[in-house]
Amino acid sequence: MELVFGLEMMEVDCSRNIYALIKKLNLRGDEGPSEEGGLPKSGFLMVLLGIIFMKGNHAPGEEVWEFLSVLGVYTGRKHWIFGEPRKLITKDLVQKKYLKYHQVPNGDPLHYDFLWGPRAYVDFNKMKVLEVLAKFHDTVLTSFPDLYNKALRDQVERAGLRGTARAPTMAEASAPSRAKSYSSSHI
């Protein structure tokens, strides 16, 4: 629940079986991709960015919706946290520039791809997205060697100088992912 929905269930009263959902994932403070007064959508966005990253930085819409259906998120069906997912993904997150959604030229049949938007590149990095993917799959970063190397290159490029990025050591990258509550604006 924490990774995708940004929520943690905490027991409030064990004798009466009362639980509360607590917001856990806050990637950008108050300016994240959540609705005013609504539940956080940062974890959901991290999953979307992860899908795009795994698919070579552009993911066919059909594959994104297929993956989301495994999570119980369906286009055209209102979700209790995200509302109408098609609107959230293709309108809200695109409008906030977290995602790009564009028609593939000369596609037959007509189809669309998702890409990271400019704000996603500012607010997130591929290593943190890979950490979320590893946690989601209950594995380690190095279980995705190609993605891990791409994430390392991304860190080097962000540092502006070749070889100066601080990459996780092999021991850190191979260590099991632990539950984290992200609060940094540069997750």
Topology of this protein?
Elements: H1 2-5, E1 7-13, E2 18-23, H2 42-54, E3 59-60, H3 61-70, H4 85-95, E4 99-103, E5 112-116, H5 118-123, H6 126-136, H7 145-159, H8 170-174
Antiparallel strand pairs: 1-2, 3-5, 4-5
Helix pairs in contact: 2-6
Mind explaining what this structure looks like?
The structure is a single chain. The protein has 187 residues and is an alpha+beta fold. The protein contains eight helices and five strands; from the N terminus they run H-E-E-H-E-H-H-E-E-H-H-H-H. The chain has helices at residues 2-5, 42-54, 61-70, 85-95, 118-123, 126-136, 145-159, 170-174, and strands spanning 7-13, 18-23, 59-60, 99-103, 112-116. The chain has a three-stranded antiparallel β-sheet. The longest helix is centred in the C-terminal third of the chain and has 15 residues, at 145-159. It starts with a helix and ends in a 13-residue tail after the last helix. Residues 25-32, 34-39 and 178-187 have low confidence and may be disordered. Residues 173-187 have a biased composition (Low complexity). InterPro entries: MAGE, MAGE_WH1, MAGE_WH2, MHD_dom.
In short, what is this structure?
This protein has 187 residues and is an alpha+beta fold. 40% of the residues lie in helices and 13% in strands. Strands 3-5-4 form a three-stranded antiparallel beta sheet. A two-stranded antiparallel ribbon has the order 1-2.
Give a quick set of tags describing it.
alpha+beta, three-stranded antiparallel β-sheet, two-stranded antiparallel sheet, 8 helices, 40% helix, globular, disordered C terminus
